[in-house]
Design goal:
Shape: globular
Largest sheet: none
Distance between the termini: 30 Å
Strand content: under 5%
Helix content: 55-70%
Order of helices and strands: HHHH
Oligomer: single chain
Number of strands: 0
């Protein structure tokens, strides 16, 4: 079930939490490249994959399914 309720100005809780825990303070201006939704998702999945295994990893990856990656990319590009 998708969560459609806004949270702290973000699309939903999942987007807010991933931005806070993974992207907060991350500089996106490496080589003047713009952050993309796909790039943000790939980066977060890599971080999560390195941090867990088994059932915990499965739950973490399922949590990422509800993140609005475009919102995070837009925020990084501001």
């Amino acid at each position: 079930m998708k969560n459609t309720e806004k949270y702290n100005g973000w699309t939903n809780y999942e987007t807010w939490r991933v931005n806070l825990e993974i992207f907060d303070g991350l500089c996106s201006d490496m080589d003047d490249e713009k952050a993309t939704a796909e790039g943000c998702k790939d980066y977060a999945e890599e971080v999560v994959s390195e941090s867990g295994e088994g059932l915990a990893l499965d739950y973490a990856m399922a949590f990422l399914d509800d993140v609005d990656w475009q919102s995070i990319a837009d925020h990084l590009n501001e």
